[in-house]
UniProtKB/TrEMBL annotation:
Enzyme's top EC category: ligase
HAMAP family found in the cross-reference section: GARS
The keyword Iron belongs to this UniProt entry's keyword annotation: no
Stated name of the protein: Phosphoribosylamine--glycine ligase
Length: 423
């Protein structure tokens, strides 16, 4: 099978590493890819936003299957364009990708299909939004409606903070994404990520993970794209997984199909496990980054037939096997991230990773044959262990061998699970 993978982050390196192990793979391309992905696939310098160019490349190489990693091309309709040419694609249509592309859309689906989530209202002007906030009081959550690279959400502990966030949105801090604002009740509990493949009708639950969104140790400081993750998330007990499937995923599948937007791809449900049980914070329509890295380390089955089954409508015919051993990944980011940071700083050496350990490339490039850091999140140092504690020790031991002066990381990835293991 000839496969094209779209994307260039740590998530795509993990997908590439796993897909390349498939005996079904005959030719493997990635666009635009990164130096880590280049170990597994031939890189193609396509502009992913240019859907015609991607379609032309697929025709030229007789590609059979396209796996789309990030959300932006899905929301922009790349999967629709390629399907129009008869290609098989892993990833939802633009209409179904609204689940991630519009928070208001998702909230309306939740309301219509009785999916547990924080109470909310949508607003297109500041005075009404502010009046609602004053009436509700704090804590309260203010969200720009559209895609804002994970930065459009303010969890406001005071009314003043919430009012300021409304001004930010309507004054253009998030561009077009902030033209509408969703104001949502604050949910109290522990967060978890749940991943489930869907082919429009059938679901195949994958695994759970926990991300570390804040930049600072002890979950302090500003939100980032994620500073580290581990899988599985102990808070997602068998009972919570069953409830998530019944109360959240299954009604979403029905709701999307009934609304005329059947969903195929991966549901990434961001959950808050509250005193009442699982509640939906948000949907993403692609794998999490860095959650994907830990999922791929634990997946024993061949990934390619699973993604293909999601694209072909045959998820009821496949199963996924997982290692019981937890996996943990630590993100190394450029100093200054998620604010501004220096680019093209040299990464002098990366350690040899052995069995159950792997350094995934996220924001790296080659310049004159030398590896440099070009992104905010740059490397994902990943390891497995018999416990989260052991996976953590192995990951940090590996990370300490990385020679990259401009990098930093959190030293406490996995702390919640490790506290539980010690209790
Ligand atoms: P989102 O981009 O919607 O995932 O939100 C980013 C982060 O904000 C989430 O991972 C949560 O930590 C937090 N958050 C979002 N919505 C809520 C909510 N209703 N209650 C509490 N925290 C929230
Ligand atoms: N790590 C969170 C995300 O991928 O959105």
């Amino acid at each position: 099978m000839k496969v094209l993978l779209i994307g260039s982050g740590g998530r795509e390196h993990a997908l590439a590493w796993k897909l390349a192990q498939s005996p079904l793979m005959t030719e493997f391309y990635a666009a635009p890819g990164n130096p880590g992905i280049a170990e597994h696939a031939r890189l193609v310098s396509l502009k992913v936003e240019d859907h015609e160019a991607v379609a032309a490349f697929c025709a030229q190489k007789a590609i059979d299957f396209v796996v789309v990693g990030p959300e932006a091309p899905l929301v922009a309709g790349l999967a629709d364009r390629l399907r129009a040419d008869g290609l098989k694609v892993f990833g939802p249509s633009a209409a179904a990708a609204q689940l991630e592309g519009s928070k208001g859309f998702t909230k309306d689906i939740c309301a219509r299909y009785n999916i547990p989530t924080g109470a909310y209202q949508r607003f297109n002007n500041a005075p009404k939004a502010k009046a609602y906030i004053r009436a509700q009081g704090a804590p309260i959550v203010v969200k720009a409606d559209g895609l804002a690279a994970g930065k459009g959400v303010t969890v406001a502990m005071t009314v003043e903070e919430a009012l300021a966030a409304v001004d930010d949105c309507f004054e253009g801090a998030f561009g077009a994404a902030g033209a509408e604002v969703v104001i949502e009740a604050y949910l109290d509990g522990e967060e978890a990520s749940f991943f489930c493949l869907c082919d429009g009708r059938n679901a195949l639950p994958l695994a759970t993970a926990q991300d570390h969104k804040r930049v600072g140790e002890g979950d302090t400081g500003v939100n980032t794209g994620g500073m580290g993750a581990y899988s599985p998330a102990p808070v997602m007990t068998a009972e919570m997984i069953e409830r998530t499937m019944k109360e959240i995923i299954e009604p979403t599948i029905c709701g999307m199909a009934e609304s005329g937007y059947p969903f195929s791809g991966v549901f990434f449900a961001g959950l808050m496990i509250t005193a009442k049980g699982p509640e939906l914070i948000e949907y993403n329509v692609r794998f999490g980054d860095p959650e994907c890295q830990v999922l791929m380390m634990r997946l024993k089955s061949d990934l390619l037939p699973l993604l293909l089954a999601a694209a072909e409508g045959t998820l009821d015919k496949v199963t996924a096997e997982w290692s019981d051993d937890p996996a943990l990944t630590v993100v190394m980011a450029s100093k200054g991230y998620p604010g501004s940071y220096e680019k093209n700083t040299p990464i002098l050496s990366l350690p040899e990773a052995g069995d159950g350990a792997k350094v995934f490339h996220a924001g790296t490039s080659l310049r004159d044959g030398e590896l440099v850091a070009t992104g905010g999140r740059v490397l994902n140092v990943t390891a497995t262990g018999r416990t989260v504690g052991e996976a953590q020790s192995r990951a940090y031991a590996l990370l300490d061998k990385v020679e990259w002066e401009n990098g930093f990381c959190r030293r406490d990835i996995g702390w919640r699970a490790i506290e539980r293991e010690r209790a």
